[in-house]
Design a protein that fits this description.
The protein is of the alpha/beta class. It is built from 15 helices and 14 strands. Helix 7 packs parallel to helix 9 (232-241). The longest helix has 24 residues, at 260-283. It is elongated and about 85 Å long. 37% of the residues are buried.
């Protein structure tokens, strides 16, 4: 796949300074999915072109499990369009090859960073299931003149009709860093088989690269949905971050990228939750542990390090999160003894599940607030009546502490996917009711910085079954 960027700005040789790539050098870079090459087909005072050629290795895709993720046919990992079309791989290549230009850095001629340049981009080849109309709807609102060439499925069989593949030429006067941001976001929007896992990190990247233009784009919702593969929770999060009308920020998981201090506090708070839950599980004497709503496996990783636990089960309603957890835990490369004691399962907290029975302890870390209040009764029965571990550790945000977050508007939740957030009194009332109903004892612990008026940011309930 090939992408070229051309300018007739004079002197056009300034393109080399902007892109941090010397016109006289061919540069090649190894990637996990092949090689990328950067070179100049032409370079003169009147006109310069820089090219990014991405040579995707289809065997490496299969070896590294980076092939298409759709439901296609059995040989789809081997028979696909990945080596030939501009896809999410091209987006990654742009960020690697032109990192300095994307960030707006130009050491030798810094004034060029904000210079509006006449630019022409050609991409061979872009897929578009929405056809020409969708391609135009992405680029034309940003001021691009769009020229398209659509390809037949097979010129030998014209009756088969046209394919979804286009060669695209875009022309616009704009800053180079803006052009690269547009390409970085919009190329994956056209790619239904992204090679990477979608997580909150992708939301952050979309927020960073979309800042200043995506908020006003008429296809904003479609861009966000397709960039994030229609994953509802992440789409809602991105929409809230990129909304002009709503400046809500999640003070824990949805922090502004620029709010470094609060981000550090958020990470620290989350680690405090995990550490405190781990301490309680160790003190309980448990040898077998459930991590319910395990997400991407952060608590599981801590549990695996402890020799005390010989049986660990992580369950989550999101199959994708379980796949990420497996990858981040290096499951396939774990020593045999560790791998044997860990199991990951797909399941819901609101349905009885025989696989959850027989464990000494269970951890439910920042999960209940993501359940609809009407479903809490089902959750209670699944955990405290059916599974019935000896010890249960539950954490949830303390709604009273929300006033400490200046960026959080009154009455707003910390995360766009929260269904409720409880005060300390509300949480204690709920937990005490469960303890009485199912023959447990419960005590409460604060987590995070303490404030005399509103308490701590998070709250923990530790349930012990009565003998």
């Amino acid at each position: 796949m090939l992408l070229t960027i051309t300018t007739a700005y004079k002197p056009a040789t300034d393109l080399g300074y902007i892109m941090h790539k010397h016109p006289d050098k061919l540069q090649s870079f190894d990637t996990s999915f092949g090689k990328m090459h950067v070179f100049y087909p032409e370079s003169s005072e009147e006109r310069s072109t820089i090219a990014l050629l991405l040579d995707v290795d289809p065997i490496a895709l299969v070896r590294n499990h980076k092939g298409p993720s759709g439901e296609g046919f059995a040989l789809e990992h081997y028979v696909n369009d990945r080596p030939y079309v501009a896809s999410s791989f091209m987006s990654v290549a742009i960020s690697k090859a032109f990192r300095s230009a994307m960030s707006g850095t130009c050491k030798d001629k810094p004034y060029l960073v904000d210079r509006v340049l006449p630019l022409e981009v050609t991409i061979h080849v872009l897929p578009s299931r929405g056809g020409e109309a969708f391609l135009r709807s992405l680029f034309e609102p940003l001021g691009y003149q769009v020229e398209l060439k659509r390809y037949e499925l097979d010129s030998s069989f014209p009756q088969w009709g046209m394919s979804r593949y286009f060669s695209v030429t875009l022309r616009n006067d704009l800053r180079m860093k803006d052009l690269l941001a547009h390409l970085y976001v919009l190329i994956p929007v056209l790619d239904n088989d992204k090679h990477y896992w979608i997580s909150e990190h992708e939301v952050q990247k979309l927020e960073e690269k979309g800042s200043g233009w995506l908020e006003q784009h008429p296809e904003k919702e479609q861009i966000i949905k397709k960039y994030l593969k229609n994953l509802g929770a992440y789409t809602k999060l991105a929409m809230s971050r990129l909304s002009e009308e709503e400046a809500m920020e999640d003070t824990e998981d949805d922090l502004s990228v620029d709010d470094k201090l609060k981000k550090e506090k958020s990470i620290s708070l989350h680690q405090q939750r995990l550490n405190k839950a781990l301490d309680e599980l160790k003190l309980s004497g448990a040898q077998s542990v459930l991590d319910l709503g395990c997400g991407e496996g952060k608590l599981l990783k801590l549990l695996l390090k402890e020799k005390q636990f010989d049986r660990i089960l992580g369950m989550d309603v999101s199959y994708r999160s379980l796949e990420i957890a497996k990858d981040r835990l290096n499951y396939e490369r774990l020593p045999q003894k560790q791998r044997e004691k860990l199991r990951l399962i797909h399941g819901s907290l609101t349905y009885r599940d025989k696989r959850l029975k027989g464990f000494d302890a269970a951890a439910v870390i920042e999960v209940i607030e993501h359940l609809d209040l009407a479903r809490l009764t089902s959750f209670e029965r699944v955990l405290f009546e059916s599974a019935r571990p000896l010890t249960v550790v539950i954490t949830t945000p303390n709604a009273e502490y929300n006033v400490k977050y200046e960026s959080l508007s009154a009455g707003a939740f910390r995360h766009s996917d929260h269904r409720f957030e409880w005060t300390r009194a509300e949480f204690e009332k709920w937990a005490s009711g469960i303890a009485a109903k199912y023959s447990y004892e419960v005590r409460f612990e604060p987590i995070g910085d303490w404030d005399d008026e509103v308490g701590a940011s998070s709250q923990m309930g530790v349930f012990k079954i009565k003998n």
